[in-house]
Design brief:
It is built from seven helices and 15 strands. By secondary structure, it is an alpha+beta fold. The protein has two domains: about 5-195, 2-Layer Sandwich (Fructose-1,6-Bisphosphatase, Chain A, domain 1); about 205-325, D-Maltodextrin-Binding Protein, domain 2, CATH 3.40.190. The chain has an eight-stranded mixed sheet with strand order 4-3-5-6-7-8-9-10, sandwiched between helices. A five-stranded mixed sheet has the order 12-11-13-15-14, with helices on both faces. Strand 7 and strand 8 (about 170-175) form a beta hairpin. Helix 1 (about 10-20) packs antiparallel against helix 2 (about 30-50). It binds 2,5-anhydro-1,6-di-O-phosphono-D-glucitol and manganese (II) ion (MN) (2 copies).
């Protein structure tokens, strides 16, 4: 991975305009990406100062997932709904923290549908461990109605995906077909600049990421897959999907959150965790599967449905799926 010299780094908006506006399927995509970047810069400030800004801790709300809502979950959801709506290019938004469809507009310029996990890794907020935001982007065809069905497009119809990881630095990864680009937030200018051009997942898998605390709940074949991985790779698990995925994208690795007999669909959500990261993994040469099929081929039935998720180095994902499916 060649990092280009800071002096020559194109900023995200210039890159987006040059790289994406040329393709008519992407007209206006640069405005959607810019809206995500603006929201991320806002959230980065809150994340950095969370404890000071009294933005840690939980509200007394419970979200559609049945999880206690952290203040930053709500702040991030509000920030991205605002910036995406004001982009003028987004027709509808699906969000982990919002049960229904956020209908923004159905004009001829509202060409995109965005599904998001505004704050991923909420349990790590109060302990200053890396967290993130995840976005899947679908096209809305001209004249297409904007309603709940807008949020039920399969992952294989995504035209872009992005995530932000608020870590030791704040990095935004943006993928369109055959292109995965990484941008780092410059704390001085508050601009995202290109630092990780043309990302590909390394050939060599270096680690596996899984919550080994769940081992005893797993069925026999999934336990066999875990044992196989233990024997070959180091375990690296942050507990924030975006942070674990980002490390694996840059260094090579596989992330697993499988189902178990009590929760056959596992914990992670199809539309705004598995689909966007599955799109990015595939565009970087990797793979993303549930326990039996390619994540992006799953026909969604509900915007908050869960799925088992195994993603990262293509060969190791395939080997792992094969073991899990051996009865
Ligand atoms: P979210 O904070 O958006 O609910 O996501 C948390 C997810 C994901 O980030 C992470 O991989 C997983 O929860 C960790 O789950 P466990 O704590 O069960 O390992
Ligand atoms: Mn999440
Ligand atoms: Mn979340």
């Amino acid at each position: 991975m060649t990092l280009i010299k800071p002096s020559k780094n194109p900023i995200l908006s210039n890159y987006a305009a040059d790289a994406w506006s040329a393709d008519s399927r992407h007209d206006g995509l640069d405005s959607v990406i810019a809206a995500i970047a603006d929201g991320a810069a806002l959230i980065e400030e809150k994340v950095r100062a969370a404890t000071l800004a009294d933005a840690i801790g939980t509200s007394d709300e419970v979200n559609v997932q049945g999880e206690i809502v952290q203040y930053l979950d709500t702040a991030a959801s509000d920030a991205f709904v605002d910036t995406l709506s004001r982009s003028g290019r987004v027709a509808a938004i699906g969000c982990e923290e919002i049960e229904g469809t956020v209908v923004v507009g159905d004009g001829p310029q509202h060409n995109y549908i965005v599904q998001m996990d505004p704050l991923d890794g909420s349990s790590n907020i109060d302990v200053a461990v890396s967290i993130g935001s995840i976005f899947g982007i679908w096209r809305r065809e001209d004249g297409e109605a904007v309603n709940d069905a807008s949020l039920l497009k399969p992952g294989n119809q995504q035209i872009a995906a992005a995530y932000v990881v608020y870590g030791s630095s704040t990095v935004m990864i943006v993928a369109v077909e055959n292109s995965v680009q990484g941008f780092t937030l410059d704390p001085e200018t508050r601009q995202f600049v290109l630092t990780h051009p043309d990302l590909r997942i390394p050939e060599k898998c270096s680690c596996y990421s899984a919550n080994e605390g769940n081992f005893d709940k797993l069925d026999d074949s999934t336990q066999k897959a875990f044992i196989e991985l233990r024997g070959k790779y180091s375990l690296r698990y942050v507990g924030s999907l975006v942070a674990d995925f980002h490390r694996n994208l840059l260094k090579g690795g596989i992330f697993l959150y499988p189902g178990d007999p009590k929760s056959p669909n596992g914990k992670l959500r199809l539309m705004y965790e598995a689909n966007p990261l599955g799109f990015i993994a595939e565009q970087a040469g990797g793979a993303a599967y549930s326990d039996s099929q390619r994540i992006m081929d799953i026909q969604p039935e509900h915007p908050h449905q869960r799925t088992p998720l195994i993603l990262g180095n293509r060969d190791v994902v395939k080997q792992t799926i094969a073991i899990i499916n051996k009865a």
